[in-house]
Design a protein that fits this description.
6-stranded mixed beta sheet; alpha/beta; 12 strands; Purple Acid Phosphatase, chain A, domain 2
Length: 243
């Protein structure tokens, strides 16, 4: 089984299209989306429709939830708040209902898929201790292979004992099938690892490896759309620097 995993699309249509083209040439069996389809970018409806068409598993991210609420949560930054309010106005009732109905976690093929954390709502897995807590949670379930999360926008791989590796370039990692792992495929639409590219990963469960991909896309077009939509300029600028 070969599974393509993407996360944090954030309404960046140019990045999503580039990733889907690369996935199409990568011989995968399924495509999974690990949340935050919308928010920040200028093409929420188009990205949502593409995810629905191409992904066999989708979980809900915090920006997806925010779009379905009457008011944006107070814990959002100012730029995120402005983008969430704008996004809500771009989506039709049917799309909002689909987002609202998404699960926050799914389990398939011995894998746990969730956006932020299995332990605390909207928590960020950024340390070995946070990763270990989530791995211990997964170990409650028999025959668990591992788990995938998003939210941090930083591609990484964690496996006991003690391996915690953030990715700054595309790479290939061997997975020990006897020890549960955690991995973040990176952000498709708004990378924050100093890489101005669209990230995703492919897990091969038969040969036990995880491959990270970083794909170039038309950043200038995505930036122009953000500015033309009247969204904060920083949301366009950060795409160029991967921050």
């Amino acid at each position: 089984m070969r599974i393509a995993l993407l996360a944090d699309v954030h309404a960046n249509l140019e990045a999503l299209l580039a990733v889907l083209r690369k996935i199409d040439s990568s011989r995968v069996d399924e495509i999974w989306c690990i949340g935050d389809i919308v928010g920040y970018g200028a093409d929420p409806l188009a990205c949502l429709q593409l995810i629905r068409q191409n992904c066999s598993l989708v979980v809900q991210g915090n920006h997806d939830i925010a779009a379905t609420l009457p008011h944006t949560p107070d814990n959002f930054t100012l730029n995120a708040h402005i983008a969430a309010d704008w996004t809500r106005r771009q989506l039709n009732e049917e799309s909002l209902a689909w987002l609202a109905a998404l699960p926050v976690e799914q389990k398939r093929h011995r894998l746990h898929v969730f956006h932020s954390s299995l332990i605390y709502t909207n928590a960020y897995i950024t340390s070995r201790e946070e990763a270990q807590a989530n791995i211990r949670f997964m170990e409650q379930y028999p025959n668990t292979l591992g788990g995938f999360f998003g939210h941090t926008h930083i591609p990484c791989f964690i496996q006991e004992p003690g391996l915690f590796r953030n990715m700054h370039t595309a790479t290939h990692i061997l997975v020990d099938p006897e020890k549960p792992f955690l991995a973040n495929p990176g952000s498709t639409g708004q990378a924050r690892n100093r890489s101005p590219k669209a990230w995703f990963a492919v897990l091969d469960t038969q040969d036990s490896f995880l491959q990270f991909f970083a794909v170039s896309y038309e950043i200038g077009i995505a930036q122009r759309k953000i500015l033309e939509a009247g969204l904060p300029a920083f949301l366009a600028e950060r795409l160029e620097f991967g921050i």
